[in-house]
Structures are given as structure tokens and as C-alpha cells.
Amino acid sequence: MNPVKPYGTGDVSFLAAGGRQGIFRLVDNFFDRMERDPRFETIWSLHPDDNAVSRDKLARFLCGWLGGPKLYTEKYGAIGIPRVHAHLAIATPERDQWLTCMSESVAEQDFDEAFKTYLMAQLFVPAEAVRRRCEAQ
């Protein structure tokens, strides 16, 4: 009998997201949605016109954050999510736009439904930390 490890244990979440390929696909879906959907205009405007680096950074961060290889650190160095967003005006509406855009992107992925729920609950934590840090300034 193989006991099933819970999400958040080792590389379980990374694998549930489809590994590197699945995470990069999710991030592309997220950025494409943000660009084309006027509901996300505010958060889209916070990104540079050439968002290739932003896409790469988010995908690499998520790989390591979900228990996979630390691709962000390998390429960009250490990261503190609230600190690197401190220069942006992120309040509750921006946090909620980000979470809605990500939730809709996650919903389109071929992830297990339980993982989708888990992932969005986990993503709320850094999104809220960014909001708190930015509003405290």
C-alpha cells in the first residue's frame, strides 16, 4: 500500500501542477488572460510592456515554491515576495484582481480539483502579504 502524501509535502505539489512544463503553461495562461481581459487592466499595467522576464520569474518562483527545483534562485537569486513588490501600489483591489486572474487560469489547467483548491488557498498567503506590506508603507 502506497500512502498518498499531502500537497505541500516534498515535490507533491510541483508534480500535481505538471512539473516545470505545467507551471510554465499556467503562468503563460495567467499572463495572457491578464493582458486580454479588461477586468485585469490595473494589474496588467503594473508589468513592463515586455513581460517575458515577469513571466519567467513567476514560473520559476512557483516551481520552487511548490517543492520543485529552485529555478528562481538559480537564475535571479533570493526572493522576498512582499519586498520585491514594495515599489508597487497594491491594495485589496489589486490583490483580488491577481487572485481572480490566477484562479481562472488555474481552473483551465488539467489539475486535480483538490489541487486547484489547495493551490488557490496557498496563493492567497503571499498575495495577502504583498497587500499588507504595500498598504503599510
Written description of the protein model:
The chain is an all-alpha fold. It has a single domain, classed as Globins (Globin-like, Orthogonal Bundle). It is built from eight helices and no strands.
Q: Topology, pairings included?
A:
Elements: H1 12-16, H2 19-36, H3 41-44, H4 52-65, H5 71-76, H6 81-84, H7 92-107, H8 113-136
Number of strands: 0
Distance between the termini: 52 Å
**Gyration radius from CA atoms, angstroms:** 15 Å
Could you list the spans in which at least 5 consecutive residues all have pLDDT below 50? Answer: none
Which CATH architecture? Orthogonal Bundle
Largest sheet: none
Report the mean per-residue pLDDT as an integer: 93
- Total number of helices: 8
What count of domains describes the coordinates? Answer: 1
Q: Could you estimate the helical fraction of the residues in percent?
A: 55-70%
CATH fold label: Globin-like
| CATH level 1 name | Mainly Alpha
CATH level 4 superfamily: Globins
Order of H and E elements: HHHHHHHH
The structural class is mainly alpha
Percent of residues in beta strands: under 5%
Choose one word for the global shape: globular
